[in-house]
Design brief:
This protein has 25 helices and no strands. It has 480 residues and is an all-alpha fold. α13 packs antiparallel against α14 (249-261), α15 (265-278) packs antiparallel against α16 (283-303) and α20 packs antiparallel against α21 (389-401). It is globular.
Length: 480
């Protein structure tokens, strides 16, 4: 194929609406885990799997398995013929787009061009427009599902996609379910970041109303009601979901989370073990099991002053086993790494704890709230297990330097304030301690206390530019 023709083909490919043009980056996901997750969903979700086969084909391409990608696209085509025999062209646009790109990367340019032409002809027929300009609700929705699968970095884009799909079909149960899921997840992360977003409760209720058989959404609604302290109402939805689909792992996982948060840890463990039999490689389930065994250890230590050592060891090992399984399965699972590092420390396996903390911080998709949480947890590890006040202070301070609000940052602030005050009361306070405490008081708008601390810091370290500058600013803000 001539360079010019190849270049013009690439230009045509860029106009297609499919996974290859939606900027889904492989470095943002653990591809093996994503492949496993989609495979499980194909097995357990009864509804159309066209979108899952299309996404699997793209994941295979990212893993350099283009032959495998073509097989999944064939399965998508078979599903389309079976479910939409009268709308084959309309329902095949994303599949054909993925075909075109996959063939292009396999240097099968003639076939790639054939699929490009099929898409172009279909778009002209459907709406007299070019492939890049066609606005079909099912394409917006498929884009939304793909963004959802690629993690939190893509959730805002997923929300936009589902909103666009719903503009044309406001009562579509599947579009409403996708929108409810992304709203629930956005709200969950925003709560950690101390931000407000539109409550997901209405979106979840609307999705359940449109499809009372969607037990996955019912389970999410139960958790949301639990968040809002409407535990009994939430449990009602959960019990109804379990009754309808007693062996559905995606309901069981959220049921376990519901009961763990209700302090019924043994019941949660029972449910998680049942779900794990069906989806043994689920990072989510292994993480939840790790949390449950950690909680049981905490309860045991709280209940008795001298808990049986053998029982303590067993719970530590079980928690470590499941947190480790979660990180092995999903190398981007930050919360599992933090849980694992903590349990290694509890088990006095300090080198492994240190190594795991470092792995957690190296994950490339961390949000600012994750980083603040990391500094808080790692600071605690340095203080409680490594007995290093200076390293704890350094880490808590790093968490504060990220100036956006989150629970992790608030925890860093409180832990740092407590530690500095303790050092100063013990007569160990140095200029840095006073300067940092001044900074904290200033953050809390306690200006007179901040001035007092900066003056003490300057007395111990005269002419320090940072302290002098901070003190001048504070004095000016009080007099102005």
């Amino acid at each position: 194929m001539s360079t010019i023709t190849k270049d013009s083909l690439k230009s045509s490919l860029m106009q297609l609406q499919c996974h290859f043009t939606w900027t889904l980056l492989k470095e943002d996901m653990d591809l093996d885990n994503l492949e496993e997750t989609i495979g499980d969903q194909i097995k357990f979700f009864a509804n159309s799997n066209i979108k899952n086969y299309n996404l699997l084909s793209y994941v295979c391409h990212l893993k350099n398995s283009n032959e495998e990608a073509l097989k999944y696209l064939q399965q998508a085509e078979e599903e389309i013929k079976k479910i939409y025999p009268d709308e084959i062209a309309r329902r095949s646009l994303v599949t054909w787009g993925n075909y075109a790109w996959t063939c292009y990367y396999m240097e099968r340019y003639k076939e790639a061009q054939t699929y490009v032409s099929k898409v172009e002809k279909s778009c002209k027929k459907l709406s007299r427009t070019a492939p890049g300009k066609i606005q079909l609700p099912e394409i917006y929705a498929e884009q939304g599902w793909a963004f959802l699968k690629f993690g939190r970095k893509y959730y805002e884009r997923a929300k936009d996609s589902f909103e666009n799909a719903l503009k044309n079909e406001p009562n579509n149960p599947e579009f409403n379910a996708g929108y409810a899921i992304v709203m629930y997840r956005l709200e969950d992360f925003s709560r950690r970041e101390c931000e407000n977003v539109s409550p997901s409760i209405e979106a979840l209720k609307r999705a359940v109303e449109l499809n009372p058989n969607n037990t996955f959404i019912m389970a999410l609604l139960a958790l949301k009601l639990q968040d809002l302290a409407k535990v009994d109402e939430g449990e009602g939805y959960l019990e109804a979901a379990i009754q309808k689909t007693p062996d559905f792992p995606y309901v069981l996982r959220y049921a376990a989370k519901f009961y763990r948060r209700k302090n019924e840890v043994n019941k949660a463990l029972e449910i998680l073990k049942k779900a794990l039999e069906v989806t043994p490689k689920s990072a989510f389930l292994h993480h939840q099991l790790g949390v449950c065994y950690k909680d049981k250890l905490f309860q045991l230590k709280k209940a008795t002053r001298y808990p049986p050592q053998e029982q303590v060891e067993d719970l530590i090992q079980l928690s470590i086993f499941h947190f480790k399984a979660a990180t092995d399965q999903n190398t981007k699972c930050f919360v599992a790494y933090i849980g694992l590092a903590h349990m290694y420390a509890v088990g006095k396996r300090y080198e492994e704890a240190e190594e795991t903390f470092q792995k957690a911080f190296q994950i490339n998709t961390l949000s600012y709230a994750d980083k603040q949480e990391y500094y808080y947890r790692y600071g605690n590890f340095q203080l409680s297990h490594m007995k290093s006040e200076s390293e704890a202070i350094r880490n808590y301070t790093e968490g504060l330097k990220i100036e956006k609000d989150s629970y992790g940052r608030r925890n860093c602030l409180n832990a740092l304030k407590q530690l500095l005050e303790k050092r100063i009361q013990a007569g160990l306070g140095n200029a840095t301690d006073f300067g940092t405490l001044g900074f904290i008081h200033n953050l809390n708008n306690e200006k007179h206390k901040a001035i007092e601390c900066y003056e003490k810091a300057i007395a111990l370290y005269p002419n320090n530019e940072e302290y002098v500058s901070a003190l001048c600013e504070l004095q000016l803000s009080i007099t102005s």
